[in-house]
Design brief:
Order of helices and strands: HHHHHHHHHHH
Radius of gyration: 20 Å
Number of domains: 1
Mean pLDDT: 95
Shape: globular
Distance between the termini: 63 Å
């Protein structure tokens, strides 16, 4: 069986399993819980199908590092604990009728999101069908991938440290100020972790393009869909944040949404 066929069966099984788990438990973060694990499996399937393909082995190692880091970060935030559902799903349930939410759960959470997880790994298929030797561009891509991985690690750690301090202040009866993170990498981007996450998968696509000798590969669909997902996600997330913290609007006016950039000066008239 071709590795892409195997991956399609795994995708179908993951979609069905996460949907059934959500129906049984009434928790809707099951796709979130396997998000950092499934890409390791998908890329490993391609690498195992051609163990002599050095590029595929390299891609599998890099995705393994990505998955290990993300899994640890998700676990320490309580994502795998019972009741560790993403708060945004709860907000959506309050805004939608029950039948509307169940349709969203089946088609978007369980199927579409699992498809994106599968699709971002498809450059491994390009590398599998174009078993060319590693070259200088692969070294550049590897350095870029690792650089973005470090950037996301730093951003997540800064966010973790902030929320730990914030929780301690609230527990002591104090009022944190500011009420959201605006320092470190977050002084240059409101969502630097989002930026670095997407950047890693665009670099992953680059490995396939390097193997094929052309950027015009249909397997770019995964990186494109991931970017569109993050565009919608950050806007929805910020609408929730703005409803809780009106001063967040000032942060939006001065700081880039995702791409790290020099902060703008506050508008003196506002």
């Amino acid at each position: 069986m071709a590795p892409i066929t195997t991956c399609l069966w795994v995708f179908a099984g993951a979609s069905a399993a996460t949907w059934l788990a959500s129906v049984v438990t009434r928790e809707y973060s099951w796709t979130d819980r396997i998000w950092s694990i499934m890409p390791i499996a998908y890329v490993a399937i391609f690498a195992a199908a051609d163990p002599g393909n050095s590029r595929l082995v390299l891609m599998a190692v890099l995705v393994g590092l990505w998955g290990a880091r993300l899994t640890v970060n998700f676990a320490r935030k309580g994502g795998y604990r019972r009741g560790g559902e993403d708060y945004r799903w709860r907000v959506l349930r309050e805004r939608l009728k029950p039948w509307q939410y169940q349709l969203l759960n089946f088609f978007f959470i369980s199927i579409y999101q699992n498809f994106i997880v599968f699709a971002i790994c498809l450059p491994a298929h390009t590398a599998y069908t174009h078993p060319t030797p590693l070259g200088p561009l692969d070294i550049v891509a590897t350095v870029a991938f690792l650089g973005f991985l470090v950037g996301e690690t730093v951003a997540d750690q800064q966010q973790w440290n902030f929320h730990q301090r914030k929780a301690a202040i609230v527990a002591a009866g104090g009022v944190p100020s500011p009420r959201f993170l605006t320092t470190g990498l977050f002084a240059w981007s409101r969502h630097p972790n989002f930026f670095f996450e997407q950047a890693q998968w665009w670099v992953f696509f680059a490995f396939g393009a390097i193997a094929a000798g052309s950027p015009w590969q249909w397997t770019v669909v995964g990186a494109v869909l991931l970017t569109l997902l993050f565009l919608g996600s950050y806007r929805f997330t910020e609408s929730i944040t703005l409803s809780k913290y009106p001063e967040y609007a000032d942060y939006q006016r001065t700081t880039s949404a995702q791409l790290p950039w020099i902060p703008r000066r506050p508008d003196a008239s506002s």
